[in-house]
Amino acid sequence: MVEGAPGFVHSPDPRTLRIDALPGADDPASAGITVGAALGCLGIELPTRRRNRVNGRVRARDAEGLTMAVEASFGNCPQYIQTRTPVEVVREAAPAERLTGLDEAARVAITTADTFFVASYVDEDGDPARRGVDVSHRGGRPGFVRVDGEVLTIPDFAGNLFFNTLGNLLVNPRAGLVFVDFERGDLLQVSGPTELVLAGEELAQLEGRSDCGECGRSRWCAGAGRWRRAGASSNSRRGRWRPGRGGGVLSIHRECRYCAFEERLAPARGHAGRRPWRQV
């Protein structure tokens, strides 16, 4: 994950993308950014909830960043993106930790997250030279990702209907996830095998869960194989879910290429320590 001042990513022509930033040398993604390698990127502007995906190959890499040969690019609608306003924070980057499993801090990072990013890839006809890589955003109310031991359960929301991520996971069931603590600037990176679940009791339990938003009729599980935590870096701080107008009611405007509508969500009665939600 990289960030910078507006303009650090720019396109000199429709088939070229220049990124004036690189992940840290200890980031697992860094070793894969070599000339000719497949690359998937997601550009997201949190204040406006605008996001675009781009796929292609690394044309050049230097000390300042990389140049990408664009093969495909398209925009996604802003639903499930939480609005945040960047605030520059200057501090020393903390060293990364490599974990053998989920510790308490990692569990908290996942269960309190309202955003994470997922990377997937497919080798066409099993040929790494014909690899395609994709990066996507997932969002929901804190708690929408469930942790059971070393397994993460993630509901599939109704989205753009492109199925880039799910299609890749169906063919190649492996994924890399990044959870961001927007208050501290910490990152939690997870990689491991995945499983798509299209039916069963667990799926029925997820449907209708308010902290999951609008669940589709599938879910996917990520079994953690590798964990890495990058502590308190210079990532900008940003806000969290914000209340709408009046009485703790949240108003969420959702839109996509097919529809645009508004839902109003209000707290329903529940036991202490948990805030279930109902649609009103």
UniProtKB/TrEMBL annotation:
Organism listed in the record: Nannocystis pusilla
Protein name per UniProt: Pyridoxamine 5'-phosphate oxidase family protein
InterPro entries: Split_barrel_FMN-bd
